[in-house]
Amino acid sequence: MGVKGNTVNMQERSGSYHHGDLRAALVEAGLRLLAERSGDGLGLREVARAVGVSATSVYRHFPDKTALLEALAAEGLARLAAAQRSASEAAGGGTAGFSASGTAYVRFALANPALFRMIFANPGARTAAERDDDAIAMLRDNAATLAAGNGGNAEVVMLKAWALAHGLAMLMLDQQVPADDKIIDDVVTAAGL
Question: Could you tell me the domains of the chain?
């Protein structure tokens, strides 16, 4: 039964996963599971089961849970950046786009609470100064544009905008402030971002 039995079992276990990019499938499964719980409760074996592969196949792509969480955080950050860029472009860029990217940040956090918390709590995550991703690049570009128009410091404008959006998101996630679209719009607009 040896090899033949194992082949049948792998086919049965592989249910939703068929040849392709296993790493991407594992990340997608991890993101789906995060929608139901926190990152602390997420395990490699559970992600493997969700994809329909053996736990040992996961270790070929992620040597431990930290590596999986880092990959999920990186994908989450890319999705956050895409949401912000889309909102900024829809608003026509400039100051309106900068404000729209701030409201998109808060709304992304509310729509993806476990992923959002994990992005910034992940021990493998790099600081803003070390990162060179789309979200930080857009924030820096918009801040530089606003600062130039007001004779201000782009780094200060960037940190002010990020602190405001992140703080508001966390207050809403922690239920200290109602998670309300009007509040999000009013706070971001009142801040002049």
Answer: 8-63 (1.10.10), 72-190 (1.10.357.10)
